[in-house]
Amino acid sequence: MTVLPDRTLPDRTLPDRTLPDRARVVIIGGGVIGTSVAYHLAHLGWTDVVLLEQGTLSCGTTWHAAGLVGQLRASEAGTRLVQYSTDLYARLEEETGLSTGYRVCGGVTVARTPDRMVALRRTVASAAAYGLECELLTAAEIKERYPLIRDDDLVGAIWLPGDGRANPADLTQALAKGARAGGVRILERVRVTDVLVNEGPGRRRARAVRTDHGDIEAEIVVNCAGQWANAVGAMAGVNVPLHSAEHFYVVTDQIEGVHRDLPILRDPDGWTYVKEEVGGLLVGGFEPEAKPWVAPDAIPYPFEFQLLDEDWEHFEVLMDSAVHRLPVLAHTGIRKFYNGPESFTPDNQFIIGEAPECDAFFVAAGFNSVGIASAGGAGKALAEWIVAGEPQQDLIGQDIRRFSPIQGNPTWLRERVVEVLGLHYAVPWPNREFESGRPQRISPVHDRLVEQGAILGSRNGWERANVFALSGTSRELTYSWGRPVWVDWCAAEQVACRSSVAIFDQTSFSKYLVTGLGAAAALNMVCSADVDVPTGGTVYTAMLNARGTYEADVTVTRTGADEFLVLSSAATTVRDVDWLRRHLPGSPAPTVVDVTGAYAVFGVMGPRSAELLGRLGGPSVFDASSFPFGTSRELPLGRATVRATRLTYVGELGWELLVPTEQAAGLYDDLFAVGADLLVLPAGYYAIEAMRLEKGYRAFGRELTTDINPVEAGLTFACKLATEWDFIGRATVESAKAAGPRRRVVSFTVGDPAAYLWGGELVLRGGEPVGQVTSAAWGAAVGCSVGLALVGPRDGGPAAPAWLRDGDWSVDLAGTRLPIRVTLRAPFDPAGERLRRGDL
Asked: Which residues contact 769 (CB under 8 A, 6 or more apart)?
């Protein structure tokens, strides 16, 4: 390891390290994230805040960050967060008197391949959806923007004039000064050695931090410790899944023609980025296979303004690519090689929020090399969360509760980080699956799925069948912007489900038991729909926050007088359980038990599903007229005992079978054995996705987020507004209903049956951007791409039915405008006759 005095901060007198006995908030970590949280807490009026840094400000990973500030992100929420950062950095110098080094210089991203060019065209459309300036460049125009570039092998590029760069150390100091001006106390060279937690009955809660200079009592502890955040989390019993990897860049000697306003250059097909640095170039990148550093609990101390040893052999793939793109580098000297470790998360999204394992313990860490761009917005978002008690914007994709405990395994993290860093500049295929660290969780019929030809994906560690390959074809999941080969296989599964019967392994569903006296009343306060139904009744419902927006989207089955079974998506297990445990009223509150691993779930769906199940359980048992929609029964089925619930997420007659794990394989075999003459097919999650979109069924995290309310989602039928029952968010929903929606979730179909949409496409009305596709797939029943979109007038007017009905609607598919039909009703079977067939 080497120490680099040329990038350290100037020597200065250390502040007083005398610790206060207590503080309202203690922040651990004095990098750009910790100082941003402190700054924003102060600006929200929370002045009793102490920030502790084990070395000096920015000395960990912040100081050697490249400092790129690119505004456009994969989602609107992520883009807004970075846009706030740029606004903050632009005005921070005037406020504090300290420069942040922030400079808007624009950015050029080039494409070497047609696939990359499609991705860039989609980026331009996303920018239009977010109101961000972005334009396509031809090869000739690239040379105008970046004269040093070799352009003979480029397909095209995009220009983002709002991109910029900041000096990480200067930015940190400016945020720190702004925080101090607001009353925050910043103590350097104070190392946290433990987090003290109340361990009595009820929920665990952080109460103090222990340092090498004494203890500080705290109402709230905030972990902004960068690559040390995993170890700090462990002090409080909190899972913070991240792992450090070596991250490389070089700074060259000065180059003629390089000036302060030279744009940032990104060549993702060559894995590299380039920016101006003191008249030379900073050349870095994200190599396809990363080099992990030490385990999270083995990071050395002290580690202040230090780098790792040079590794020119590992950096060679990046440098060769950079020389190819910028030939001037072939005869330019290298001033310094930087190998600085940075932490990366398992899914390439940063971590933010209050820990589910410990109240009053918040985390902001794992910024995956985008910490400088994200710091302003992330610091504001977490400060608002701390003050309000819940997030004030959509952070579902970054929320710490998206991870299960198994994803904190250090061996698994080390394997995953190699892939994660390398995916930064990979083509962003919308259906990309991680390949490393699999499998983690498998259903009891996993071997059957593989034998049947399943092409597997992964969600929250669960291996799941995306689609089933035809016999003799490749099991590899192919990626394409057009219509992939597996769409035909998926269409066959859809046809089987619509015409006869299909079986889905949905074991990855999250499953919780809510039990105890007063469980019905408590759940009714948390759930938007009335779940106080007779035993055996099943209710579709939301769980909303105080802002009336979505925290969960679940089904609730009453299984006893004081017992309820809650089913939710695979990705939200920790999040849902945490929300229930925090918000269920009562003293004592009902108990919430996660039973996800105890049961498998099989969806038996299609017009002949009752016939198939009747062969194992008796024809009269599954007679649709005597087993109404929305009812659930425990009964024998073949040799197994199951809970059969008549529900559907595909819009057909069908049942979800909850079966004990140890009985699942036998039941699965029996279902296929007795259904052979019905031409029963196994079907995967791609088929579920397509069929739910044909029915206009919403999904949490896409159509239903913490920025969307039931009025906008078109789901007020799942809110008990006509009853006297109160529920969290009711008043806000009522106000939104009275005011009318300013945007709506709508269904659409594409006029061109050959067009293939993935989601994320720009939606236009009369040629003007009005929203974005949230989900899309190819629907066999409608014979075209079908999806859901969130749209609304740009002038803030109401998204009235006439506005939706009378418009000239289209989508932008990588630069091509395609007419679409927009509707508030389901494109397929809008009256819901098929899912209720056989009912009296």
From this structure: 128, 129, 131, 762, 763, 794
Range of the structural domain that residue 530 is part of: 510-594
Helix ranges, 213-255 (H):
229-235
Structural domains of the chain, count: 2
In a domain, 565, yes or no: yes
Confirm whether 226 is domain-assigned. yes
773 closest CA partner among 786, 783, 754, 782:
786
Q: Is residue 323 part of a domain?
A: no
Return the residue matching tokens 């250390």: 14
| Sign, Cα dihedral of 475, 476, 479, 485 | negative
pTM of the model: 0.96
- Phi then psi dihedrals of residue 513, to 5 deg: -105, 130
Residue type, 779: G
pLDDT in tens, 312-325: 999 999 999 999 99
pLDDT attached to residue 796: 87
Closest CA to 683 of 498, 465, 500: 465
CATH of the domain at 557: 3.30.70.1400
Residue 557: inside a domain, yes or no? yes
Other C-beta atoms within 10 Å of 504: how many?
24
| Whether residue 404 has pLDDT greater than 70 | yes
How would DSSP label each residue in 449-473? HHHTTEEEEEETTEEEEEEEPPTTS
List pLDDT tens digits, range 409-428: 999 999 999 999 999 999 99
What CATH number is attached to the domain comprising 45? Answer: 3.50.50.60
Q: What H or E segment, with its residue span, contains residue 179?
A: helix 168-181
Parallel, antiparallel, or unpaired for β 264-267 and 107-111? Answer: parallel
Torsion of CA 707, 713, 717, 722, to 10 degrees: 50
HEC profile of 527-561? ECCCCCCCCCEEEEEEEECCCCCEEEEEEEEEEEC
Q: CA 42, CA 34: separation in Å to the nearest integer? A: 12
Looking at the fold, whether 352 and 222 belong to one and the same domain comes out as: yes
The CA-based angle 565-571-573, given to 5 degrees, is 40
Cβ atoms within 10 A of the Cβ of 349, count? 21
Together in a domain, 393 and 515: no
Would strands 538-544 and 510-515 be described as parallel, antiparallel, or unpaired?
A: unpaired
What's the chain's length in residues? 840
